[in-house]
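Continuing the series of single-chain predictions for the mutant panel. This is the parent chain; the variants come on the following pages.
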Amino acid sequence: MATSETRLKNKIIAVMDECGIEENDPQSSKEKFAEKLAQAVIFEIKNMTITATAPNGAVTIINIS
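Parent structure:
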């Protein structure tokens, strides 16, 4: 699975909407936002595809998607 800007954007919007309705514990909401955002970014990093070549032992990155 390749990385997806749209999927990441939608996850960020969803967590912002979820945290935006918090009225009683803003600190908890902030921590929840940071945790969910970190999870979404890590998910995209783990699912990226890197295409590379290694001529003469050095790696040349051709594409990250």
